[in-house]
Amino acid sequence: MSSKQNTPQRDFFSNKFGIIAATAGSAIGLGNIWRFPYIVGENGGAAFLIILLLIKFGIGLPVMLSEFTIGRHTQRNPFGAFRMLAPGKLWWIVGFMGIIAAFTIMAFYSVVAGWTLDYLYNSVLDGFNNKSADDIQSMFDSFVANGWQPIIWMFLFVSISSLIVVAGIKKGIEKYTKVLMPALLVIIVILCVRALSLPGAEKGLEFFFKPDFSKITGASVLEALGQSFFSLSIGMGVLLTYGSYVQKSDNIGSTTFIVAFADTAIAILAGMVIFPAVFAFGISPGSGPGLVFVTLPNIFEQMPAGYIFSVLFFVLLSVAAITSFISIQEVVVAYLSEELNIKRKTATFLAAGGAVFLGALCALSQSGHLNIMFGDMNLFDLLDFASSNLMLPLGGLLIVIFVAWFMGKERLLRELRSNGLYKASYFPIYNFIIRFIAPIAITAVFLSKLGLI
Ligand code: TRP
Fold first, then answer.
1. pTM for this entry
2. pLDDT digit string (tens) for 29-68?
């Protein structure tokens, strides 16, 4: 494996809107619309939301900026970036780990993304019409248990993503996210207006916005950190890779802030769609991962003009999933094409093939066709757990330690200031957080996830 020193003709994002659309596209995904509401639901609502916001902006944002900075500074894929910054040292392992984590996330993410396509298809055909809550639950169960059907949808999903990725940064990722992200915003606002006008919506808003701190436990703090990292796409080289396509004149401090803000805003809007609807129809908000796939179709079914809103909702979910998935795929593609000199087309195909293969194993482990268990987790659960709870925090921790302690303050400041174009007046706070607060907090979370403290 040789790191090429002169990368030929690297592609770049064309302007700030392009960077923000692509990076927000990565951040805003199933994590915001599917995972965020049920995690808030399970952890008691508004009090958890406050903790999540503090952790997200206090720790997540600085870590995010650190990862972005390495990418912009080196203009390399994660593996090549660490080789360039720390030649002869073992830091390349961090980059390599990111690439492995990308692969892992691709596998289970594509399975859930495949479900969203199936649901989109079903809602277009009006397949939830006249179904009772039990019918919808058993539709979901038998779909997952079928094994092959989820694999076909997953395959379709990965193919769509590959078509975008293969076209490159400007002509692929940027071009599509620039259209899809504004569309996503419009759809979520329409859904929000609809949900808020349902009779009984206030109860949902109260649950979501009125804090009850008695519900907060140590475990919810850990959950908040995990969710922040997942939602901001931290810790596995996505931000590093996207950062590497950012031009030297861009203000990366403000760019990452805008993305973190947009990511949070969309998650909150998703909560304002889901909780009012859930409460208006008298359903428990803590219904876990099935919240979006079982509870919502049921609600749309009972709602006046539910057909159109259910189609809109699943378009939203599919768009959010696609723009995130392409960012994960891009990590693997950038590595294969820059480090192993594989053509972009072939690299895209290899990344997709690997994801489909591993994803298919995940789908089969869920349907029970493939019976390997790791404790009480099947393969899907294991990959979800290992990537969100172990690899992302570990990747984030090592990245932040590298930037804070090994990259050199001068170099770091020059990058954040774009060589004097900007002031980066947040630097002292940022520096303090990445040197002390973030490493300590992430380590604590990590150890407790492993049951060591
Ligand atoms: N952030 C995305 C979401 O919220 C998922 C995602 C995309 C991701 N790229 C990532 C998560 C990189 C972790 C790391 O759905």
1. 0.93
2. 999 998 898 888 888 899 999 999 999 999 999 999 999 9
For ligand 1, whether the C-beta of 104 sits within 6 Å is no
Q: CA of 267: how far to CAs of 148, 177, 306, 334, 406, in Å?
A: 32, 18, 22, 29, 34
217 pLDDT more than 60: yes
The answer, yes or no, to whether any atom of ligand 1 lies below 6 A from the CB of 324, is yes
**Distances from the Cα of 40 to the Cα of 27, 35, 108, 195, 378, angstroms:** 18, 9, 22, 18, 24
Is the C-beta atom of 231 inside 6 A of ligand 1? yes
- Give residue 116 CA to ligand 1 midpoint distance, Å: 16
Of 199, 194, 211, 183, the C-alpha closest to 273 is: 194
Amino acid 2: pLDDT: 44
Residue 3 has pLDDT above 60, yes or no: no
Give the distance from CA 444 to its chain's centroid.
22
Is there a contact between 232 and 56 (Cβ–Cβ < 8 Å)? yes
What Å distances lie between residue 319 and 157, 176, 177, 315, 323, CA to CA?
11, 10, 9, 6, 6
3-state secondary structure of 377: strand
pLDDT value at 435 more than 90: yes
pLDDT (tens digit per residue) in 324-354: 999 999 999 999 999 999 999 999 999 999 9
Cα torsion through 290, 39, 271, 31, rounded to 10: -80
Domains and their CATH numbers in the chain: 3-449 (1.10.4160)
Ligand 1 centroid, distance to 396 Cα (angstroms):
13
Residues forming a β-bridge with 377: 374
Which of 63, 324, 330 has most ligand 1 atoms within 8 Å of its beta carbon, as the pocket-test mutant? 324
More confident: 6 or 266:
266
| CB contact at 8 A, 261 and 70 | no
